[in-house]
Amino acid sequence: VGMTGSTFQLVNGIALLTTFGGSRLVWGTYQNYRMYTDIWRAIQNPGELPVPSWLAIAYLASTTALSGLNFYWFGKMVQTVANRFEKPNGTQGKTKKKKQ
User: Fold this and answer.
1) How far lies 6's CA from each of 53, 54, 73, in Å?
2) What is the pLDDT of residues 1-45, one digit of tens each?
3) How confident is the prediction for the chain on average, in pLDDT?
4) Taking a C-beta distance cutoff of 8 angstroms, is the pair 53, 43 a contact?
5) 7 CB contacts (<8 Å, ≥6 apart)?
6) Which tops the pLDDT comparison, 63 or 3?
């Protein structure tokens, strides 16, 4: 398509990072915090339906691992978008010399 490094690709990349960051990192982390506190309360104050320890540990471990992957993939997405707009090797910080 030949749009690498175009303004459209930059806007698309920023929109993708903003959406992913807002939904997965900000909102998702907040929801994980709420879930952690709910499970903690359920373990501390078992009511009519106590939470088995193995279930709480498995749920917390899997959710924490998935949150870690969200942050990892966000970092990879930032690298990918940044790489699209870097100058090729050998051209950064160099100016052309005039022939005399």
Assistant:
1) 52, 51, 23
2) 677 778 888 888 899 999 999 999 999 999 999 999 998 888 888
3) 85
4) yes
5) none
6) 63
Q: How far, CA to CA in Å, does 66 sit from each of 28, 31, 62?
A: 10, 13, 6
- Dump the DSSP string for the chain: ---TT-HHHHHHHHHHHHHHIIIIIIIHHHHHHHHHHHHHHHHHS--SSPPPHHHHHHHHHHHHHHHHHHHHHHHHHHHHHHHHTSPPTT-TT--PPPP-
Is the overall model pTM greater than 0.85, yes or no? no
Mean pLDDT along residues 35-57: 87
Q: How far apart are CA 24 and CA 5, in angstroms?
A: 26
Q: How far is Cα 24 from Cα 13, in angstroms, rounded to an integer?
A: 16
CA distance 85 to 11: 12
- Residue 36: CB atoms within 10 A of its CB come to 15
